[in-house]
Amino acid sequence: MLRQMAQTVVKKRKTSWSRLLVELLLIVAIVLGVRMWFQRDMPSGPAPDFQAVTMDGKLVNLQDYRGEPLLLHFWASWCDFCQFSEKSITGISQDWSVLSVAYQSGDKAEVSEYIKSHGLEGWTTIPDEDGRLAELFGVSAVPASYVIDGKGNIRIKEVGLTTGWGLRVRLWYAKNVDSLGGLFGFPSAVAGDNK
Questions:
Q1: SS3 129
Q2: Residue 69 CB-half CA count within 13 A
Q3: 157 phi and psi, to 5 degrees?
Q4: CA separation (Å) from 80 to 69, 85, 111, 128, 156?
Q5: Which of the 8 DSSP states describes residue 124?
Q6: How far lies 58's CA from each of 48, 93, 124, 125, in Å?
Q7: How far apart are CA 179 and CA 8, in angstroms?
Q8: The Cα angle at residue 44 between residues 39 and 49, in degrees rounded to 5
Q9: Which of 59, 60, 57 is nearest to 112 (CA)?
Q10: Is 137 helix (H, G, I), strand (E, B) or coil?
Q11: In this structure, what are the phi and psi dihedrals at residue 148, rounded to the nearest 5 degrees?
Q12: pLDDT truncated to tens, each residue of the chain (195 aa)?
């Protein structure tokens, strides 16, 4: 009797662990599927070039950031999730080049008010009132971030929340991917790269 009860408990444990594993795999599949769906229109390869005027009146384009990785970060004043990443983006901007885009967050005065009220004066920000820059990059949800390497190629694209450390690792990767590939005898990760 005791042996039979022990066998029943072991079978239930195996069943519960296998069920837990199946549920975990299902959750991971759903999360990855949603991420892929949000990224479906986001370009890869060479980053679309653009010219825009920042909040302080400076004309910028991607050519200005050649040589080092760039974090191109799309956010919106009406996006609650974007507020969670503000502190991380501020910290990253002290070590890496960051260009932020205020996606459909109002006119320049409204974006300026938001920046001041949230202590984001250190950000280099482009107001994208009509969403044209976001459309060029296929952004349909925010926060969205691109890591663009020093040659102007999109290395990583993200939609949704991500950690500051995660973005730092992605920027480091964009800076070092070619040298890492060469170390292990792999060709450049972006087709068409010429050294």
A1: coil
A2: 26
A3: -130, 140
A4: 27, 10, 15, 18, 23
A5: -
A6: 19, 18, 10, 10
A7: 56
A8: 110
A9: 57
A10: coil
A11: -110, 125
A12: 656 655 555 555 666 878 888 898 898 888 777 767 766 667 678 999 999 999 999 999 999 999 999 999 999 999 999 999 999 999 999 999 999 999 999 999 999 999 999 999 999 999 999 999 999 999 989 999 999 999 999 999 999 888 999 999 999 999 998 777 655 555 554 444 443
DSSP string, 9-76: HHHHHHHHHHHHHHHHHHHHHHHHHHHHHHTTT---EEPPP-EEE-TTS-EEEGGGGTTS-EEEEEE-
All domains of the chain in start order, with CATH: 45-183 (3.40.30.10)
How far is 152 from 46, CA to CA, in rounded Å?
6
Gap between the Cα atoms of 143 and 73, Å rounded? 7
pTM: 0.76
Q: How far is 156 from 134, CA to CA, in rounded Å?
A: 16
Q: Which two tokens stand for residue 84?
A: 């969670």
Residue whose pair of structure tokens reads 């980053």 in the numeric block: 47
Q: Token pair for residue 65?
A: 């950031």
Nearest residue to 73 (alpha-carbon basis) of 169, 176, 160: 160
Give CA separation, 27 vs 14, 15, 22, 30, in Å: 20, 18, 9, 5
